[in-house]
Specification:
This protein is mostly beta strands. Helix content is about 0%, strand content about 50%. The chain has no helices and eleven strands. Strand 5 and strand 6 form a beta hairpin.
Length: about 120
């Protein structure tokens, strides 16, 4: 069973930055498409950014393009999300997700089968 653990969340002022990290164990990491997702209270879980197994392809939601960057370090079995120019509407619990196989541009939260426990990100105005 694949296990994922997120870290790096916290409280930051609008315009600030945070870097989230996801540590993965249990399978061959490079065989998995990975993603970062977020869920605010009363809202559906939404995809923020996804990345292919070799890091060659990335996709971002329109709301974070130009501000967030997803990356992976396969030798260390980790995925990161660098978040810059944070806005209050970015406030949510952020989750790391994994799915065996290739990444497709249409994949969202319902297409990922393994999840971490989440880490809280709060952006103050």
């Amino acid at each position: 069973q694949v296990q994922l653990v997120e870290s790096g969340g916290g409280l930051v002022q609008a315009g600030g930055s945070l870097r989230l990290s996801c540590a993965v164990s249990g399978r061959t990491f490079s065989d998995y498409a990975m993603g970062w997702f977020r869920q605010a209270p009363g809202k559906e879980r939404e995809a923020v950014a996804t990345i292919s197994g070799n890091g060659g392809a990335t996709f971002y939601s329109d709301s974070v393009k130009g501000r967030f960057t997803i990356s992976r370090e396969n030798a260390k079995n980790t995925v990161a999300l660098q978040m810059n120019s944070l806005k209050p509407e970015d406030t949510a619990v952020y989750y790391c997700g994994a799915e065996p196989g290739a990444l497709a541009p249409w994949m969202g939260a319902s297409d990922f089968s393994h999840w971490g426990q989440g880490t809280q990100v709060t952006v103050s105005s």
